[in-house]
Amino acid sequence: xxxxxxxxxxxxxxxxxxxxxxxxxxxxxxxxxxxxxxxxxxxxxxxxxxxxxxxxxxxxxxxxxxxxxxxxxxxxxxxxxxxxxxxxxxxxxxxxxxxxxxxxxxxxxxxxxxxxxxxxxxxxxxxxxxxxxxxxxxxxxxxxxxxxxxxxxxxxxxxxxxxxxxxxxxxxxxxxxxxxxxxxxxxxxxxxxxxxxxxxxxxxxxxxxxxxxxxxxxxxxxxxxxxxxxxxxxxxxxxxxxxxxxxxxxxxxxxxxxxxxxxxxxxxxxxxxxxxxxxxxxxxxxxxxxxxxxxxxxxxxxxxxxxxxxxxxxxxxxxxxxxxxxxxxxxxxxxxxxxxxxxxxxxxxxxxxxxxxxxxxxxxxxxxxxxxxxxxxxxxxxxxxxxxxxxxxxxxxxxxxxxxxxxxxxxxxxxxxxxxxxxxxxxxxxxxxxxxxxxxxxxxxxxxxxxxxxxxxxxxxxxxxxxxxxxxxxxxxxxxxxxxxxxxxxxx
Length: 492
Fold this sequence. Notes:
Elements: E1 5-11, H1 18-33, E2 36-43, E3 46-48, H2 53-58, E4 61-66, E5 79-83, H3 85-90, H4 92-97, H5 99-102, E6 104-105, H6 125-152, E7 156-159, E8 162-168, H7 174-206, H8 211-221, H9 224-227, H10 234-253, H11 265-307, H12 310-325, H13 330-350, H14 358-366, H15 369-380, H16 387-401, H17 409-414, H18 418-436, E9 439-443, E10 453-456, H19 461-483
Parallel strand pairs: 1-2, 1-4, 4-5
Antiparallel strand pairs: 2-3, 5-6, 7-8, 9-10
């Protein structure tokens, strides 16, 4: 059956770029095919261009193009095609034309679409659940990090005992009080990041009834005073809580509750039972061991970072390389998740003086290397690329400069051997960033991150940041040329 009218929902992990790029691609393709469409976006700002019940009812098919969990309760009885945003960006026209055949009737009991993991894909369910938590946490991570970092710059005062030294601490006047409270505000934000992340993961699995118990449990497992430990269980604890509460709520929802109880099941019974079970499991079983393990792990990472010059270079190269392997796929997302976990947990445990933001700097710097390298290659070594590929090079440059690593996907898809070049050059970026000691508190993972973000560490950290990314991209371009050196373009 040919599609005459479809509705769609788009959403990505960060909720900024891919959400709206996928929307634009679907709308443009629909217009070119002469098909009526309405696309709802679920970005960081929330739901925009929201679908109405009437539009959903009239639609021939529902397309969900998202890297995060999207609530499908509105679409019971409709045919749904679920893909990630990258599949829309690759070929929106074909996707729309075949949507009716590939879509699956949604009964409200769940379905599975897209079993294969490929370059640029994040269709893996575990990754989607984690990304859902991450997308809820990212805004507060950036806001809290920047507030705390900004206030921290006013905390250094001249040492009253030695004019050549400075001491850390806010002054007792009104200015000092203001920045002291601003500093505390940032710390509150970091405290809430863990439960917000846990609640986001649990919501993706168990829907709305999972939010409250997961938030309570997430706070509980990261509260050192509650656990009686030196530190909380951090990010690993939040992941355990998110998945544990999510699936517990899903199990409770499957129970055939008596009709008289059904109105209070989602607002009272499920949250109460879930929170109580979480308390028993966290306080008596896993809370202390996980907290002790995480404290030891981050103390170890910080120690080797300070005492062994090669250590950050090695993990910087690994994280950077992971960013270039599958360009937005599960390995790429894992590197982002790990680097953010180290940043959030060490900030919460040790504060701005002990935070380890080098892994985050290594991973985020590598985001732009592959697409920028692809663009440089098409500009510097034109004879190895077709006219279409050279046009894609300009597109890759734009995507790289705003921190969208998927800009290199068309090249990797056409020439899989280029994945090696992407991985090596991204690893070089991560290693150099770590070697220089740049810390990245948040912002755009591209050269623009020097201005739309916060880098610190060595003198002129922002300039090092830009130069290392561009140098690594140039290495990427040279590796592209070496890989394609035997390629002959005829009438290209």
